[in-house]
Amino acid sequence: MLEVQSLTTAYEGLVAISDISLSVGASEIVAVVGANGAGKSTLLKTIAGMERPASGRILFEGADIAGAPTHRVNMLGIALVPEGRRLFPRLAVRDNLRLGSYLHRRKSDREAPLEMVFNLFPRLAERLDQRAETLSGGEQQMLSIGRALMTRPRLLMLDEPSQGIMPKLVDEILDSVRTIREAGTTVLIVEQRLAETLEIADRAYVLQTGRVVMSGPAKEIAGNADVRRAYLGI
Fold first, then answer.
1. What does the domain layout of the chain look like in residue ranges?
2. Which CB contacts under 8 angstroms, 24+ apart, belong to 191-197?
3. pTM of the complete model beyond 0.70
């Protein structure tokens, strides 16, 4: 579904990711792991069209989308749940979800994903009229994921979905990633909770200072003591 080829992105002359290549197959959960500053978020932003690559290709279902604007990437079927959630804090849960369905013209198409969102996160159905800013951190993350799912993505990218969430809700969020995949959506996830992420992923890529230093089945990477110490800090 997604193939990144020799991708490099720089900020003001400073290279953030360098010559990265990776692939994501349909119906996979693929994790990108590594320490802070490794370039994980930059990779997702570049795929999503929020950053322009200096070189390389990003093929989504065979079409090169490198450098395409964010709205076009979204229309093609890629949704990013960004780090920090970026909700509309003064809007109600209902309205934040509706904003995720703007791509669909017919009302029936716009509302169709709601059932899946509410099945995943029943709390959102209970808080439809609450402003987003009044939700807990975990509930806000649920809303951010739900808003992305309203676009009906074929590829969902998650940037640190457990950040700022109470530990008891982290498992609920990560379990939802499995359910999203089972419903037919492919997932590319960046996470600091490395052990838990590698447990739900099919494959993983380890980034260090903007480069892929290892890739393979997630269970093999999770079980490699040298990799855990050198690159993951666990």
1. 2-232
2. 191/31, 191/33, 191/158, 191/160, 191/161, 191/162, 192/36, 192/160, 192/162, 192/163, 193/162, 194/33, 194/222, 194/232, 194/234, 195/222, 195/234, 196/162, 196/170, 196/171, 197/31, 197/33
3. yes
pLDDT tens-digit readout, 20-71: 999 999 999 999 998 888 899 999 999 999 999 999 999 999 999 999 999 9
CATH of domain 2-232: 3.40.50.300
SS3 208: strand
**Can you tell me the distance from the alpha carbon of 88 to that of 96, in angstroms, rounded to the nearest whole number?**
7
> What DSSP state is assigned to residue 229?
I
Two structure tokens written together for 22: 């990776």
